[in-house]
Amino acid sequence: MASKKKTKSEEEQKTNSKTKGSKKKTQTKQKTKPTVKANVSKEKKLKPLSLIREKKNEVVWMDLSVDGDDSQRIEIVIFSGIVKKTAANFVAFCTGKNKLKKSYKGTCFHRMIPGFMLQGGDIENGDGTGSISIYGEQFVDENFKIKHCQYVLSMANAGPNTNGSQFFICTDECAHLDDKHVVFGYIADKKSQKIIDQIEEDGSSLDGTPQAEVKIVKCGLKKK
User: pTM, whole model, 2 decimals?
Assistant: First the structure.
């Protein structure tokens, strides 16, 4: 199997430049291809808070523990009616009900940057290098209809159309990620938001290496 590119969110690539003669591509925050941005930026972005009562929404839960302490549950509203394919992939890994028999259960957040995001979901390798989905190794960007803001759930990638199992939760406004990453969920309740705020403090502004082990002890789909 060919080696995989390390999955990162766009902000973390701001100091990288394109490497000549290499098949791997890196992007900087300031050097996004204008042609790509022009094709998608005309569409008005939807605000996550305005979507939380959509009938087709689903709600998933995750029990998170920090360094083995008692777990705390967060709930995430998933916009299944707007990003159906992306939502189905995430829900399948939350429930473990998929042909791969894979789950987020037992995985950790491998990159956490205060004031930016918490990234996890690497079912394969646990370090940000793995890529797997219920559709194959990767799948395409479904759409960029929803804007990035604090507490949204978005797909991590290694460039256009490289979505897998990895995701990140924004802990601040991240408008620069619009048109580059697919937003598909939102942490709407105050209790869950407070837990995310607390976990964010265990991150590192230097390289994102967690200062504590934040593990998904259990996860699943909330019954309606």
Answer: 0.82
